[in-house]
């Protein structure tokens, strides 16, 4: 649901910190039904050793740890990882999580060493299928993670559901229209039916079931919705092609049909997950 802009000067780092905080406090919780459905289906518990790819600010890992799982996570966003460490490391919250928790800025291999037991579950909860080329980096991560997992271990991929089942699709079209000159640089596109299966097969994984989960996006007001959606990174190409003020204005206008009488914003969405197996 996001992409990471490059680190640049100190001003942009401040913006990235603010965006990471918006993701953690506003947007990340929208995918909680997805996390819960997957963990329930796969019976995540004390015997689970979970590796989260693109773990972000760690909410999915925290939910796994609350079920008793040993969790590790990797991501490329230093700002989000800092928030994940605040949530997950035992030194931050007493004995809230197990001492073998690892939160790593790097590759799947950086989260394990020769003494690390094989993972029994790998998750890639960041939804793919809405940005041109958004699955390319994931394929490499999956190939790197596969040798670290048990044979036949489940690997979970997530993606946006059909556009007609996702109210947010109409809002995301703002990103496509504004970013038109840079479309190849990562603007939004409608999810395709076989996005997840294609990624799994390219990574040498065998599909073994799937499901759909209702994940409505709900916000306190339009301002909160704008901040939350911008934190996904899906509007970065639009900001580059135009400017921040233009994107903020048109995004707010696109949200008006979903604003209710109490000023809250509500957009029903369906997300899809695929369970694949390591060879």
Automatic annotation (TrEMBL):
Molecular function as annotated in GO: methyltransferase activity
Domain of life of the organism encoding this protein: Bacteria
Keyword Transferase: yes
Biological processes, Gene Ontology terms: methylation
Keyword Transferase among UniProt keywords: yes
Keywords: Methyltransferase, Transferase
Name assigned to this protein: SAM-dependent methyltransferase
